[in-house]
Amino acid sequence: MFDWLQNIGGSSQGLDEINKQFLQMLQDGRHIFDAASNALLGGTTSDVIREDLYATDLRINRTEIQVRRALVVHGTVHGAGSFPSLLVLMSLVKDAERIGDYSKNLFELGCTDTSLGSDEQRKLLISMKDKISGFLVRSYHLFEGKDVEASRDLLKEIDIFLTMCDQRVGELLRVEGVNEAGQVLTMRYFKRVASHVGNVVTSIVMPLDQLDFYPGKDQGQQ
């Protein structure tokens, strides 16, 4: 389960700081996702949030660098026995960083004139955005509290969501005579954000060698 975090050795103060920095990345990821999605789907003007959005993305990247540096130092001091767990943390901060990247893609899509379909189709995208935002909030609290059973429940919900994204993309690609590129890209970015949230949550419930994989997840999914 989550014992790997304690297995990397060293002072509890150092571990607490690494944990705190990672949680901040998740919090920033939720902020940038909400801001970018609102700009894409309506209700927020892109120019109003642009500076804050890119500043948040930069903060996520800088935090990733800080955590990596701390992990390298930790591994140097505590030796090879800590390496597997350090690699897990390296993977997790990359997942958190990618949430920011795909959110930025959503924002940049919103800065174009692409169509997101009818009012009904837009409502579906808004409901999916709200669901992902909820995933991000729950992942933060689950990582903070190490709730294994609730994490398994969330992973099941994320797997259903990923399948829905694939099904919807398939439907859109079969539409003739209409440019559905905006919806398809939005669905793909939504799927990638949700998938990276799922990767983070696997660290709570799965053994080290199965990080990013969990029951129900199609290992071929991208």
Describe the structure.
The chain has six helices and no strands. It has 222 residues and is mostly helical. Helix 1 runs antiparallel to helix 2. The protein is globular and about 60 Å long.
The overall average pLDDT, rounded, is 85
The CATH topology annotation reads as: Methane Monooxygenase Hydroxylase, Chain G, domain 1
Radius of gyration: 18 Å
CATH architecture: Up-down Bundle
* Assigned CATH class: Mainly Alpha
Terminal-residue CA separation: 25 Å
Total strands: 0
Strand percentage lies at under 5%
User: What would the principal axes of the Cα set say about the shape?
Assistant: globular
The CATH superfamily bears the name Phosphate transport system protein phou homolog 2, domain 2
Number of domains: 1
How many strands, what sense, and barrel or not for the largest sheet?
none
Secondary-structure class: mainly alpha
Roughly what percent helix?
over 70%
- The count of helical stretches stands at 6
Low-confidence stretches: none
Q: What would you say about this model in short?
A:
This protein has helices spanning 12-41, 46-78, 83-110, 119-145, 148-173, 181-205.
Key words describing this protein structure:
single chain; 222 residues; mainly alpha; Methane Monooxygenase Hydroxylase, Chain G, domain 1; 6 helices; globular
Helix-strand blueprint:
Layout: H1 12-41, H2 46-78, H3 83-110, H4 119-145, H5 148-173, H6 181-205
Helix pairs in contact: 1-2, 1-3, 1-4, 2-3, 3-6, 4-5, 4-6, 5-6
